[in-house]
Structure formats: C-alpha cells, structure tokens
Design a protein that fits this description.
Helices cover 37% and strands 22% of the residues. It has 451 residues and is of the alpha/beta class. The protein folds into two domains: 339 residues, pyruvate-formate lyase- activating enzyme, CATH 3.80.30.20; 73 residues, Arc Repressor Mutant, subunit A (Orthogonal Bundle). The chain has a nine-stranded mixed beta sheet with strand order 9-10-8-7-6-5-4-1-13, sandwiched between helices. Helix 8 packs parallel to helix 9.
C-alpha cells in the first residue's frame, strides 16, 4: 500500500462481524423481546451456539474483550451456575429441541474453567440440543492457564478445534502488553492437543502492538507456524480504543507503531504467510491451509462472517450465552448484560439477560448480504444480490458513486453494478463496505482503524 493511500484511508470503520453493527444496538430490545424471537425461530433451522466465559487470571493490556480478572475459582463457579441456567431458559423458549451444528467457547478465557465444569457444560448442551453429526466444537485456549487435564477433558468431550492465542513471541512486546508467554509454554499445550487427538489447531497473532517491529513480527510468524503447524492463522490488528477499554491506557501511545509501520507489518506478514508459508488468505485477516474447509469455502463462495470472524458456519441463528454474549436471529440481534453480577441476578430471577439489540428489516438484510459478500469474496454482483431480495440493483447507484475515490486510487473496480476489490484494496475492504452502511455516520470514532 502506497504511504499516501495508507494515510488517506486509515479510517475508523466497523469490523462488520454483523450488520447493523453493535454500536447501533439499543435498549428497546429486552429479554422478553428475545424470548418472543426464540419462540418464533423455525424449528427446522440448525443453530450455532456461542458461550462466553467472562473471566481471566490476569488482564492483557491489549484486550478488547469483556472479561473480569480473578485469582479465585468461586466467582467462576457462580458464573457457570448462571450460564447453565441460561442454557436451560433459552432451550425452554425455543419451539422444540433444536439441532446445533457449531459450538464455540470464547472469552475471556475458557481455560480458566475446571475440567469437570467444562465437561458438565458440554453434557448440558447435548441434553438440551441435538448435536449434529460432524458438528464443530471449538474452544479458545490461553496456554498460560491450560493444563493437561483440561486438554484431555476437552478431547474426551468431543472438541474438534482449538484456537490458541499466541499474539507475539518477542519478550519485549509481551512485557509491554502484560502477557508473558514464552514459546515453550505454547509448545507444551500444542503437544497435549496432538497427544489427545484434537483434530484442528489454530493460532491467533496480532500486529500493531507496542514496541513491535516488522522484523519481530515476521520472526514470530515464522517461528509459530514452523513450531505449531496450525491449520489456520489469524493475523489481527491491535485495536487501540482506550476510551472504551481503560486498561489500554497502560500502553503508551508513543510505543505503538505509526500508520505506515502498521501497514508494513500487515502487508509483509500477509505476504510471508501466503507466498512463503503457503496459506490461502481469507478475506482481511485469516489464513488457511489450501485443503482446509475454510479455504474450500472461500473458493466455492460459501464463506461466511459472524461475531467470531470468518467462518464456514452458515447457521442463520446464533445463540449467545453468558455475560456480554451476542446472538443473531432471523428477527434481529440481541446482546446480554455485560456486567457479570447483573447478568447473574437476571438469570437467577428466571429472566433472559438481554439488555439491548436491534430488530432488522428487509433493507438491513439486503445490505447485510452485500457487506458479508464483500468481506468474504472481495467482489459482488449487486444486481444478483438485490434480485434475491426482490429489488433492483439500481437502488445502490448513490453508494456506487461514493466509491469513486477508491476507484480512482485503484483500490476497487466498478463495472456497472459489479464491484471487485483489487488486491491492493483488500486491506481497505471495510472502507468499501462502509459505503453500504446506512447507520454509519461520517467521521464516527467508536471503531478501530481500518488496518
């Protein structure tokens, strides 16, 4: 990316893991709204389930997740009692015992759980939902808190994918983000995953961290890929939003790479992963082995994007459990109370903990598909997509006109109602999507930078 374009388009735009995006959720959607939406879900649909484990043993200063820090297990145990009760309440609100095709444990840190509580959670899900043959069961792992008993319990419970947070292997960077995680700590967990035959291993890396250099990032990528042999790699950009996450104020802004350095880290990291290490780039920030299901889905234009990022999961109903859990239903989006104690009180009273959300209309559904296809395929035929929704692609002529600056700079090609993001423009695909976002206000500062 040319430096002038990097400066020109380094905008703050949504990550588009949903549309409309979370800042536009409002308190008019309540637990009772959610209960009604659950009851109206088509019994024939297959579900995706997300469980948010809202605790960590210590705070990583780069973290943008909803989490609480605890050194004791009692708060975690109390939280899990509420989460188990929420699973029961949601299952009772659905029209029947429905089929789940995808289960994802995120956080926070799911590895803070005792192995018995993890297994109990899986058993409860299996009793309340029908688990589809071949369903993916994925768990995010913090190597610093995972032990062998936990990995063995995961494997025995049917976990099919582990996503390991690596971030960066440079001790200076680790010190600056308060995440001390030597290589051998991660290596040991990977060895356990292989030992107990968890089929798929992913790793997450981050660029744009304090004191991170281009050479240091490339060394981390090479070392992690060669040592851990992941099937998928995520290369996320650090989102510095100290006005939202106060602990990020512990990272001095002067220690962060500037815009040009971030672009270099991203572009050279992507080049290393694809040209040298042989991964297929998936959208903006994911990479997969050529024969991986995600790479195949990309090739066949079956790739999707949801709150967990790029995915092969095509379920139209995603149920989010736990404090700050977010769900997507045919009627709209819901978000649970984020404060753990308030979440627990609501669940204990028999209520559903949704405190905000948004109902969607036909225009939202159309724009959501446009944005998702752009994020996944980097191209779209507006006439074809609009036709599936019973409207004419010409209704987006104003949005197409708004892409003129990106087109003039060679970042996107527009041919009639067809849009194709160029390879140079891939890094700015979120800016292309923003042209179709009717909720986004110009100059809005609540989002992270485009790269």
């Amino acid at each position: 990316m040319r430096p002038d374009l990097a400066a020109k388009y380094d905008l703050r735009v949504p990550r588009y893991t949903s549309y409309p995006t979370a800042p536009h959720f409002h308190p008019g959607v309540t637990g009772e709204t959610y209960r009604g939406w659950l009851g109206g879900v088509d019994p024939a649909l297959e579900l995706s389930l997300y469980l948010h484990i809202a605790f960590c043993a210590e705070m990583c200063w780069f973290c943008g997740c909803h989490t609480k820090i605890t050194k004791r297990y009692a708060p975690v145990a109390a939280y899990m009692e509420a989460l188990w009760r929420e699973i029961e309440l949601v299952a009772e609100a659905l029209p029947t015992r429905m089929t789940a095709r995808h289960i994802h444990f995120g956080g926070g840190s799911p590895t803070i759980l005792k192995s018995d509580d993890f297994v109990r959670t899986i058993d409860l899900l299996k009793s309340r939902f029908l688990l589809k043959d071949g369903a993916e069961v994925a768990v995010e792992l913090d190597p610093r808190t995972a032990d062998e008993a936990y990995v063995e319990a995961m494997a025995g419970a049917g976990v099919t994918r582990a996503s390991i947070g690596v971030q960066d292997l440079d001790p200076k960077v680790q010190q600056a983000i308060n995440r001390i995680q030597p290589y051998d700590v991660t290596e040991r967990v990977v060895e356990w995953l292989r030992k107990y035959r968890v089929p798929e291993v992913n790793i997450d890396l981050i660029y744009g961290l304090p004191h991170q250099s281009v050479d240091g990032l490339l060394k981390t990528i090479e070392t992690a890929v060669e040592g851990f042999k992941p099937r998928r790699v995520a290369l996320f950009g650090y989102a510095h939003v100290p006005w939202m996450k106060k602990h990020q104020r512990l990272i001095p802004e002067e220690s962060l790479p500037d815009t040009n350095a971030r672009w270099q880290q991203y572009e050279l990291g992507c080049r290393l992963l694809t040209e040298t290490l042989g991964y297929v780039q998936i959208g903006l920030d994911h990479f997969a082995a050529p024969d991986d299901a995600m790479a195949v889905a990309l090739k066949e234009k079956r790739l999707h994007r949801n709150f967990q990022g790029y995915t092969t999961d095509s379920a139209t109903t995603l149920i989010g459990f736990g404090a700050s859990g977010i769900g997507s239903l045919p009627q709209g989006y819901v978000a649970n109370e984020g404060e753990v104690h308030a979440y627990q009180r609501t669940i204990a009273s028999g209520g559903l903990a949704v405190t905000r959300g948004i109902a969607i209309n036909d225009d939202d559904r159309l724009r959501r598909e446009i944005i998702e296809r752009l994020m996944c395929d980097l191209e779209i035929d507006l006439d074809a997509v609009a036709g599936r929704h019973g409207v004419d692609g010409g209704r987006f002529d104003a949005e197409l006109a708004g892409l003129a600056p990106l087109q003039a700079d060679g970042l996107v090609k527009v041919d009639g109602h067809r849009i194709a993001v160029t390879e140079e423009g891939r890094t700015l695909v979120r800016a292309v999507c923003a042209a179709f976002d009717r909720y986004l206000k110009a100059g809005e500062q609540r989002h992270s930078k485009a790269v």
